[in-house]
């Protein structure tokens, strides 16, 4: 039978990169840490760590076991949190990641309200434009926008949103856009992390679906919606932006929506969470809470 404490010590060694650093993080002696890892290797009958004078590295078996250890430790923590919840309400740690833009506008306000309802729950929010690995970085929930890639995780649909092309009035004064042809020949600002940022299926006013492709390569690229928005506001070209991000700038007159009678494909918002046997109540509760807030337009 696996000893969860030994799994936690092994994971700490991997994350710290040495027995000495792990011992300091755990508040234990180096000898205790080393002994527990050695015992774990003896019980499994394999070497988990390759030791050298300079550093520790995981063996192939160690890499596989480390990933499974993280899952087991997370499931154990989830079970404990739910047992405590029966007596004291939601507790433990809820760790969530989202893009900076959607996080600031929607996720963080929702987490603040959720925290007021569950004061014993410690909440950690991490803003990132990159898709973090939920297991290795120990996230309970990742809020993802756009098309969902194939994944072993579970996904709950939160909402959908429109996207549309926008440009600054100064740019349009020199290069007006009245048709899809004009739009295709414009200077574009593209999202660098999209597989095909300049090719979209567009619904025309006649309800025909046409494949829209930008004529030339993007003039500028950025790795976040905020960067695209900033480029557009500075009059450098056309950007395709989420309605929830662009609309305030359109209302203020700093951007103009282009070809409003055309429809680009709606994008979805998902809450992604690890596919474990035991889904913690804090995860279920927050996803339901966020979905309800979005549905109310908050």
CATH class of the largest domain: Alpha Beta
Biggest β-sheet: strands ordered side by side in the sheet: 4-3-5-14-6
Using the alpha-carbon principal axes, give the shape.
elongated
Question: Percentage of helical residues?
Answer: 40-55%
Characterize the largest beta sheet: strand count, sense, and whether it forms a barrel: 5 strands, mixed
Described by its quaternary structure, the protein is single chain
Number of strand elements: 14
- Gap between N and C termini: 48 Å
* Chain-averaged pLDDT: 88
Binned strand content: 15-25%
| Secondary structural class | alpha/beta
Based on the coordinates given, report the CATH architecture of the largest domain.
3-Layer(aba) Sandwich
The arrangement of helices and strands along the chain is HHHEEHEHEEEEHHEEEEHEHEEH
Topology, pairings included?
Blueprint: H1 4-16, H2 19-26, H3 30-44, E1 49-51, E2 56-58, H4 60-88, E3 92-98, H5 100-117, E4 121-127, E5 141-146, E6 154-161, E7 163-167, H6 169-174, H7 180-184, E8 188-191, E9 199-203, E10 209-213, E11 220-222, H8 225-233, E12 238-242, H9 243-251, E13 256-257, E14 267-273, H10 281-295
Helix pairs in contact: 1-2, 1-3, 1-4, 2-3, 5-10
Written overview of the protein:
- It is a single chain.
- The chain is of the alpha/beta class and 298 residues long.
- It has three domains: 4-83, Orthogonal Bundle (Arc Repressor Mutant, subunit A); 88-158 and 268-296, Periplasmic binding protein-like II (D-Maltodextrin-Binding Protein, domain 2, 3-Layer(aba) Sandwich), CATH 3.40.190.10; 163-265, 3-Layer(aba) Sandwich (D-Maltodextrin-Binding Protein, domain 2), CATH 3.40.190.
- Helices cover 43% and strands 23% of the residues.
- Strand 1 (49-51) and strand 2 (56-58) form a beta hairpin.
- The protein starts with a helix and ends with a helix.
């Amino acid at each position: 039978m696996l000893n969860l404490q030994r799994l936690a010590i092994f994971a700490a060694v991997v994350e710290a990169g040495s027995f000495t650093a792990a011992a300091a993080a755990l508040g234990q002696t180096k000898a205790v840490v080393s002994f527990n890892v050695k015992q774990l290797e003896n019980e499994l009958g394999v070497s988990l760590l390759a030791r050298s004078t300079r550093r520790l590295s995981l063996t192939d078996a160690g890499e596989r076991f480390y990933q499974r250890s993280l899952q087991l430790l997370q499931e154990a923590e989830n079970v404990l949190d739910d047992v405590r919840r029966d007596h004291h309400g939601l507790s433990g740690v809820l760790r969530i990641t989202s893009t900076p833009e959607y996080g600031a506008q929607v996720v963080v306000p929702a987490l603040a309200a959720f925290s007021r309802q569950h004061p014993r729950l410690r909440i950690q929010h991490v803003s990132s434009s990159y898709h973090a690995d939920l297991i290795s970085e120990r996230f309970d929930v990742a809020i993802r926008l756009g098309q969902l890639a194939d994944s072993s995780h579970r996904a709950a649909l939160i909402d959908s949103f429109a996207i549309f092309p926008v440009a600054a009035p100064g740019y349009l004064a020199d290069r007006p856009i009245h048709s899809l042809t004009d739009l295709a020949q414009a200077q574009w600002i593209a999202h660098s992390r999209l597989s095909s940022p300049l090719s979209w299926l567009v619904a025309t006013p006649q309800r025909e679906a046409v494949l829209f492709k930008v004529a030339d390569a993007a003039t500028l690229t950025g790795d976040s919606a905020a960067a695209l928005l900033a480029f557009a506001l500075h009059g450098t070209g056309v950007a395709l932006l989420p309605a929830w991000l662009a609309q305030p700038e359109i209302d203020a007159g700093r951007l103009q929506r282009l070809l409003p009678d055309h429809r680009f494909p709606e994008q979805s918002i998902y809450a992604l969470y690890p596919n474990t046997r035991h889904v913690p109540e804090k995860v279920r509760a927050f996803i339901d809470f966020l979905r309800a807030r979005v549905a109310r337009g908050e």
